[in-house]
Amino acid sequence: MKRLVFALAALLLAASSFAQVTVKDAWIRATVPQQKTTGIFMQLKSAKDMKLVAARTPVARVVEIHQMMMHDDMMHMHAVDSLALPAGREVALQPGGFHLMLLELKEQVHAGTKVPVTLVLEGPDGRQETLDLQATARVLNSAHH
Ligand SMILES: [Cu+2]
After folding, report:
1. For the domain 21-138, what is the CATH code?
2. Of 1, 48, 116, 122, which has the maximum CB count within 10 A?
3. What is the pLDDT of residue 119?
4. Rounded to the nearest whole angstrom, what is the distance from the C-alpha of residue 54 to the centroid of ligand 1?
């Protein structure tokens, strides 16, 4: 019985640490037929120091964490290993900055549809947890953004 109580406590702790990362306004850029790449954007806020180390979605074979920046008057983007989520600070994944890059899309992403996304987050102790969310497909530069 004692062991069961400990197991339950561990489960509750795991569940509450999930809730310490909040996601706001997750969206995915809608695509046209034959398009093989797109991006996912959102606001992330973690109550404790965490980092985003990976992500996956059923609509793409490959998901990378990308950073976009100006270099020699040109926009460049490159993959990064992780994105730091400092405690209490809102981190934006947005066009022109960090984003989740979807490569080898399996299907067209139509505006208005919801796409499941799983984030893999890692704490300072190296322990990983996952966070499931839904990203709504929008056309970039649409009036309501
Ligand atoms: Cu990219």
Report:
1. 2.60.40.1890
2. 122
3. 97
4. 14
